[in-house]
Input
Amino acid sequence: MAGRLPRWDVAPKTLVFGAFSFDGNGAVLMQKQENRQLLSGTERRVWQGGRSLVRFARQRFELLLVPVAMAVFVGVWALIGRLGNYPPFLLPTPVQVWNRFLTVAADGTLWYHTSITLWEILGGLVLGLTTASLLGYLLAKSPLLERFLSPYIVASQSVPIVALAPLLIVWFGFGVLSKVLVCALTIFFPVLINTMIGLRTVERDLMDLMRALQASRWQVFRYLELPASLPVLLGGLKIGVTLSVIGAVVGEFAQSDRGLGFLVNLANRGLFDTPLMFVALLVLMTIALSLYGIVSVMEWLLLRWKRES
Output
């Protein structure tokens, strides 16, 4: 106990040294636990119940924010349309958009074009995420390969996807394949960068520990690299799923006879059917929000261990 200064505890004439306390005669009184007040069983249950109630109320309040904000938006939109008395081709009211939605939903037009766009988005996500993740892993592991390919990858991003889409359509035809490629190219770069950053955030000390344990390359990836980089990878996936909707619509804008992008193009340029264009845009926003929500749920499930730790 030399070199350590004693302090007085709550009880008089009691000295506390580190983990043990002594009275004035030098007898050991108790082993010191954590420096906090211990609650009784009843107090602890009341405290935990209060925390659970506050957490429950906060979650319900956050869930109510979305419909309340939507109701305010629709109300302001309807008010502007009523006060301005705009024609439907300029600014339709929410009621006119809803009636148009019921019409195109009843005759099957909306579901047909929505299914085409969904297939393009899902195909682009699978292709773009797979290629970007694999190439990102190789670039993160090989600095030489990164120095060789990085200038070409960065230069390819300087070409607008709107200018590249017609060329892909000429090469691969007017079908779904060209739209899938446009969608994949749109999400490729953000997912690639997030994959590289995520894999490089792994601590070198942990890598040395895995090598000392003679772990195989698959075990290092499975038990260290993937869990450690998962937050960054899921962040890139959130960006990718929202950009995939844009990529599919850009491909349909370039040249297509089906899909929600074609429906927007037709309503805007051919029919001047602004309510139909609003319907297609709202469906596209719903798809993007749904994909983002799915990734958020995946993030909540896969990163539960991080919250608990």
In short: The chain has three domains: 1-33, 42-85, 97-308. Confidence is low (pLDDT under 50) at residues 1-39. The beta strands are 7-8, 14-17, 20-23, 28-31. The first strand starts at residue 7 and ends at 8.
